[in-house]
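Field reference: sequence -> structure
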Amino acid sequence: MNYLNMNKEEVEPVVNKLNILLAEYHMYYQKLRNFHWNIVGKSFFDLHEKFEELYGDARIKIDEIAERILTLGYHPVSQYSDYMKIAIIKESDSLITDREMVEILLTDHSTLLATMKNVISKAGPIGDEGTIDMIGAYIRELEKSSWMLNAWSKKTDETLNTLSISKIA
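Structure field:
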């Protein structure tokens, strides 16, 4: 039964991109666990808690992405060996500095955001509003997390970009 009123051939590219996103999130999730377990130094309390918050969020998104693939009528990729093959995000060393961890996560966020935009580029033309809505919310949340991690990595005397008042109209 086609309860979604979508063409199977049109949905396949969306499912393909969702499976890639699922793989990326699995790799990101495990990296966050690695960093959560191995953070040391003066940033321990802040980053230990932040990494736990981020991997909790990633765990939820992993389930939602897999369920969206199921909703679209396909089985999600579910073997870790396959995730490692199709994901751009790769494992990281455990014994690195707090700054290196945050830099790596910001790079991973960039990868996740690009993958999410690829999902939307496939879902948009076929009117897959369910996928677009889900991924749009993910983009907003990940952009905010990226801003916060980026702010953490700044020196206290660094500032953001500013607009001249003459450019605001």
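Note: The chain has one domain: 10-152.
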